[in-house]
Each structure stands twice: as structure tokens, then as C-alpha cells.
Amino acid sequence: MQAWTGANTVSRGKDYQKDGLVHDLGITSSGALTATVRDTLNNDTLVDVEDGSLTSRCTCMFMIGCKHAVATIIEFLKIIKQGAIASVATDDDYRLSLLMKYLTLVSIIPIESQGNENLRSWCIAYGKI
Q1: Helix (H/G/I), strand (E/B), else coil: 77
Q2: 81 falls within a domain
Q3: Which of 92, 91, 120 is nearest to 106 (CA)?
């Protein structure tokens, strides 16, 4: 995971999982993970594997490869290690539609209107805006 997000993000994600901030973890019909990770806000996260690489979407300001995604993965690994079964996230799970709406909204907001420098930088670097 460190190659994907960096050591600091992995460390923070581990702390979030250890502190019990991952809630409602589920597996979608396509095999992706979704969860709500609570810190100052509820951040809805989707983690998947595409072409052999981890990918994620999140409602936090970083949107991809964030501590919330790391915490979700670690929580899923904990569930597997305990021999438990993760819940199923149905195709109409509110988080999936919320993530799509959020990402669509971010992609159409004029760059001048976005108050977060990190979000602006990421959007410019990855051609989202």
C-alpha cells in the first residue's frame, strides 16, 4: 500500500482503522469495498482493483489514495483474518450514488470556486477540471 499512497497515508489509515473509525464496510456486486470512515466528517469510500492496481474514490478532499481508503482495506483484512464475512453492499447502496454525484460535481466546479489548494492541485494534475 505504501507504493500506492505513501508511508504517511498508510500510517494514518492504520490509525483510523485501529481507532474504530471504519463503519458499514461492504462488498459490492463487482467485488469492490465500500465503507464510511468517520473523522471530522463522514467520508464515503470505494476501493477496487483495476488492471491489477488498487484504485479508490472518496468524498474527502483528496478523493483518491487517501487514508480513508487505506483504513477500509485494513478493516477488510481484519475481517478476513477473523474468519468473518463482510456485509454485501447492494447496487443501490447510497454511498455508491453519493460518490458518483460527488465526483461529477467536483469535475464541473470552476477552478476559481474551489477553496482547497490540495483539491485544486490534484484536479489540475489529473485533468479533472
Answers
A1: helix
A2: yes
A3: 120
Radius of gyration of the chain, Cα coordinates, nearest whole angstrom: 15
- Cα 99 to chain center, whole Å? 9
Percent of the chain with pLDDT over 70: 78
**Domain assignment present for 85:** yes
Residue 24 three-state SS: strand
Rounded to whole angstroms, the Cα distance separating 116 from 92 reads: 30
Please give the model's pTM, rounded to 2 decimal places. 0.77
> What total of structural domains would you count in the chain?
1
Domain that holds residue 60: 2-91
Residue 126 lies in a domain: no
The grid cell for 17 is 482503522
Residue 76 located in a structural domain:
yes
Q: How far apart are CA 36 and CA 26, in angstroms?
A: 10
Task: Tell me how long the chain is.
Answer: 129
Q: What's the 3-state SS for 43-70? A: EEEEEEEECCEEEEEECCCCCCCCHHHH
Residues 76-96: tens digit of each pLDDT: 999 989 988 888 888 888 888
